[in-house]
Amino acid sequence: MKKIVFSAILIAISFIGYSQSTRLGVCLNPHFAWFSENSDLMKSNGTSLGIEGGLVIEHYFAKNYAFVTGIHLGSFGGTMVYNDTIVFRTNDKDKTVPPQLEVKYKLQYISVPIDLKLKTNQIGFLSYFARLGFNPQVNIGAKADAPPALDNDEAGKEVGLFNLSYHFGGGVEYGVGGNTAIILGVDYNNGFLDLLTKQKERQSLSYLAINVGVMF
């Protein structure tokens, strides 16, 4: 895990060099996540509250346009109900999960977003922005809970190592002096890689995030 974190930091920092046109910041983004599926053999069952946060790097290549990256650590989740008996591969042994039993997934990811940000000129203390891009993710932890079949079991064998989503959103910056600004926004993320590894059917992770941060 330490190697993954260190590599992600190097990628984020090397994506753009620090200069006068570069801003650094931090963010803390609560979100509601859910699974999407394309099969009658399973169904998503509700949303899960999680949180993601970390370093933000903005590099302005023009006055109102910036490339945005960083490194984020987040917890995500979702619930899946299978309409048939499945053999669930935990890190210890295979376990049988009967049909119609809710399987709650708890996932942790390291993310290195790659975004384009478009911002208005400052109007008073406020400026508005739109942002879109991609969110590559590496899974660093996975658990599944479905009593009595599963009891917070390690589920790394069931979850793919990589995930990728596209996202778009917008928000507002409130200048509080100098280059410092408070960020508030909303972001929609839609995954388009298979989340789970065993089933042939496609499952993906989507979430709606509230973005809260400070840029310096």
CATH architecture: Beta Barrel
Helicity level: under 10%
User: In percent terms, what proportion of residues is strand?
Assistant: over 45%
The total beta strand count reads 13
Subunit arrangement of the protein: single chain
Q: What's the CATH topology name?
A: Porin
Total number of domains: 1
Query: What is the terminal separation in angstroms?
Result: 29 Å
Provide the structure class: mainly beta
Using the coordinates above, name the CATH class. Mainly Beta
Count of individual helical segments: 1
Please state the average pLDDT score.
Answer: 90
Q: What general outline do the C-alpha atoms trace?
A: elongated
Radius of gyration, CA atoms, in whole angstroms:
19 Å
Quick gist of this model?
The protein has 216 residues and is mainly beta. It contains one helix and 13 strands, in the order αβββββββββββββ.
